[in-house]
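Quick one: structure tokens for this chain, please?
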Amino acid sequence: MDRGISVAWYDLPENGKEQYLDWLHGTYIPKLLKYPGVLWAAHYKSDESIKPLPRLRHTQESLPEGYRYILILGAKDAHAFSALTPYNLKGKIDPADRKMLDMRIGERLNIFTEEARVDGPHAKEREGPYTPAQCIQFGSFNSGRPEDEDELLAWYADYRLPAMKEIPSSMGMRKYASVSGWAKHGVMYEFTSLEGRAKNFRAHEAKNKETAAWTEEVIAKLVHAPASPNVAVRIYPPPRQ
């Protein structure tokens, strides 16, 4: 199973962006997939027309603020990424790769281990055993206070994860806990399309006033990373024809 993920959020300059993307998809990702334990890679472009809800709190800490691109690597467990951390890669990166990696602006990194996952009604439409959906929503955040962690656990275990088994257009959901990086929590929702997410995600929640009220209480206690949650479309690998 792919129980660990590495996530990089970043921006790119307009000048040289296409060259970078060609290198990443054609050269660098194939290199990363050769590391022991690394099982898959997916690269996403955030939909900048979809903004985080105004009621969400975002950290005031000084963090890198990139978000337009999200590179996710999946591995058998989080420890498979040890070899790929800045600590172990220091001085070992090919100069040509280093030049391209230096194009990333505001890069923020997290390594997560999987806490739980569920399949949605459209899980069988996956493009292979590992490739995540063409449309995702990825949240990265901390609870405002340690004493709120138990309620957050209950909300995911008792409501949000079970709900994602039923929501139309849902392919599934994965909840993560941090191994390294600012965000203690990560959550990846998978949808068949941007349109399906927009039509069904909030509408399903609004059907039950009690759970909707609980959601509002939980959301108010979270502190998100810059621009989180990100709604994004997969640009690598391309959709299977």
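The chain is about 30% helix and 30% strand.
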